[in-house]
Amino acid sequence: MNNIKMKTMQFFVFFCICWVSVKTAYAQEFKYEILKGGKSIGNMQISQKRVGKNLELAMKFNAEIDLLFKNMLIEGYENASFYGGKLQRSSILRKVNGRIKADIQTQWTGKEYINTRSGKSNILPLKPIEMHLLSLYFHEPKDGSLVYSDGFAQLLKIQKDGQTYELKLPNGKENIYTYKNGICTKIMIKSAYYAVRLRKIP
Hints:
Blueprint: H1 2-24, E1 25-36, E2 39-51, E3 54-67, E4 70-83, E5 86-96, E6 99-108, E7 113-117, E8 120-124, E9 146-149, E10 154-161, E11 164-168, E12 174-180, E13 183-190, E14 195-200
Antiparallel strand pairs: 1-2, 1-14, 2-3, 3-4, 4-5, 5-6, 6-7, 7-8, 9-10, 10-11, 11-12, 12-13, 13-14
């Protein structure tokens, strides 16, 4: 009888451990096609992985663009790490025709954020950050939410406009996000020289 009770207890403990693991760990990955003028010019992959209080976001893309009679192969890698809902570190690495054009890191020291680009570091006067640009692919924001950009080293306000959300960047570009069931399905990236659309692949 005692042996049966012991086996029942072991099974119960094992079940609880598995249930907690399922509840505290998950991963998602989305793929997007990059289009310009209706023509596919590249692709992008973005993922999130949560384990307990840790959340890792990662993105990579490549696109080939003809701009002002010049062909450019653009590659990008971005990461953002959160703990307990607060950004701990993030980074951007961007290449054009194989040459590094942007290499930027942001790090939380426990007291402040340090933004480093081209070997030069600056302290950012920001409170703990709750949302990163990469977060927008997985969660529909609230109107007026502040989103952190590594490239501009600042918080940007995203505003709802009807059924979409607009994010105006300091360099004059504009990102327009469309959501379905809380997941970003389309992004329109506008600048003075071109417009690029990202479409989520089912």
